[in-house]
Write a structure and sequence with these properties.
Strand content: 15-25%
Helix content: 25-40%
Shape: globular
Distance between the termini: 9 Å
Structural class: alpha/beta
Largest sheet: 11 strands, mixed
Radius of gyration: 20 Å
Length: about 375
């Protein structure tokens, strides 16, 4: 049995960027959405408030230093930082670059390439395409690798089997995936690595881990929760996903017709925790877990809400799932998230729970010898 490393997903959006200023208004960060959130039904706990009103900025090195120290103190082994790159264009890259430049910040990290389109869907948007995810030609792939290379070479960047780790949100979206990975593997070996350790994310509807693992380039699959359960159910059941799609269509149709009486798409957190615990995992799948999840700060009344979250419930189920991960010799277990405040999924301390979720992580990890 090994002790699985606990990886927290990390959102770099909490500082002003040119794109956010253009798309959502001058000075926008996710804190704007968080502060403006409100309850939409009985016992709906919104807005979420960071402990001591700590509405930080991620273009401040001291904020990132504080996060890293806090994470390590409570047993988080690494940050999986979202990385945005489309056809040569970077976005929200500053926190990772600050971390790279400040070698004294002692936290392991790696990237999750968030390779998706950006659409104007938040705040009752019309769905207009804001930025299309594109991949370019081999020169673009080489330039992308050249940007990643200094991170890969950093001692803090996570490696497995002599390979820098890279998670990818939607592998199937990359039509040039085989050719790109062949080039990246060649370039990685020129730097002295054994290749690239690719972790595919399983979240989208009807995405199949066995299919993903057939690729010669994919080493592992990470089950992204709770959206994997919302989209696919406990074991990727097509009947479940079809019925869920019908339900979603009906809810959205209601919300278009009855704008003053929106219906949220609701799920029970306890039910999902149980499903994660009972799921039959493949040897090459990593567990994903989550604290809470509620995207009303961004989607307002037309949201997906997971209800019934509590530190005590998290503590009960994470302890069991973490033990199963260790018993199965899985190198990593992922938690959504360190700071996804716009989706109410975070480990950072808040006014409701204090350090409760972090304390639960530390107790759980210390209990496994």
């Amino acid at each position: 049995m090994i002790k699985s490393k606990i990886v927290a997903m990390y959102l770099p959006q909490f500082y002003e960027t040119e794109e956010n200023n253009c798309w959502w208004g001058k000075g926008y960060t996710d804190w704007v959405a968080v502060k403006n959130s409100k309850p939409y039904f009985k016992k709906h706990r919104q807005p979420k408030i960071p402990l001591n009103d700590n509405y930080y900025r991620l273009d401040d090195v001291e904020t990132i230093r504080w996060q890293a120290e806090l994470a390590k103190e409570y047993g988080i082994d690494a940050f999986c930082m979202y990385h945005y790159y489309s056809n040569g264009q970077l976005q929200m890259q500053k926190p990772a670059e600050i971390l790279l430049q400040n070698k004294d910040i002692s936290i392991s990290f790696f990237f999750s390439w968030a390779n998706h389109d950006f659409k104007k869907q938040w705040f009752n948007g019309d769905g207009q395409l804001l930025r299309r995810q594109e991949y370019g030609d081999p020169d673009t792939w080489a330039n992308h690798f050249a940007y990643l290379a200094p991170f890969f070479k950093d001692e803090r960047y996570m490696k497995i089997d002599g390979k820098p780790v890279l998670s990818i949100y939607d592998v199937l979206h990359i039509k040039c995936f085989d050719n790109m990975m062949a080039l990246w593997t060649k370039l990685a070996k020129q730097l002295g690595f054994e290749g690239i350790y690719i972790i595919a994310t399983k979240s989208n509807t009807n995405l199949n881990s066995q299919q993903l693992l057939q690729s010669e380039w994919i080493n592992k699959v990470f089950i992204f929760e709770p959206m994997n359960f919302r989209n696919n159910g406990r074991q990727g059941n097509y009947i479940y996903s079809s019925l869920r799609r019908v339900r979603t269509v009906l809810i959205r149709a209601n919300n278009r017709l009855r704008k003053n009486h929106p219906i949220q798409e609701k799920f029970s957190i306890k039910r999902i925790y149980k499903a994660i615990l009972q799921r039959k995992m493949l040897p090459d799948e990593y567990y994903g877990f989550f604290t809470e999840w509620d995207n009303t700060p961004r989607y307002q009344g037309k949201s997906v809400v997971f209800t019934g979250g509590a530190v005590s419930l998290f503590d009960e189920y994470f302890r069991q799932i973490y033990f199963k991960s260790c018993l199965s010799d899985k190198e990593l277990i992922f938690i959504n998230a360190w700071n996804e405040w716009g989706e109410s999924a975070y480990l950072e301390p808040d006014e409701d729970n204090g350090y409760g979720y972090l304390e639960s992580i530390r107790k759980c990890k210390d209990s496994v010898i």
